[in-house]
Amino acid sequence: MDTKETFIAVRKNADGDLKEFKTSSGRILTYEEALQQVQSGMIEGVNTFTGKDGETYIRSNPDSDRSNNLDSLPTFEEE
Predict the structure, then answer these.
(1) How buried is 74 (Cβ within 10 angstroms: 0-12 exposed, 13-18 middle, 19+ buried)?
(2) Which of 6, 15, 27, 50 has the fewest CB atoms within 10 Å, i.e. the most exposed one?
(3) Are 19 and 29 in contact (CB under 8 A)?
(4) Which of 19, 22, 14 is closest to 76 using CA atoms?
């Protein structure tokens, strides 16, 4: 597969934290699965960073366009 996927929608928990991601090919990934995919270079437009708490998180690549931030993506419902 030559074309990398992107995240097109997200699902959040009751606290507003991201918990699942929908990819451009329609796959639904848990946060942990998405983190592994991002770290292996299979998802474009995002990267990982280590927070002050020592945990690793996913974030959009910085480009000063807030509309493509992960928090700005549309949400999707249970399928």
Answers:
(1) exposed
(2) 15
(3) no
(4) 22
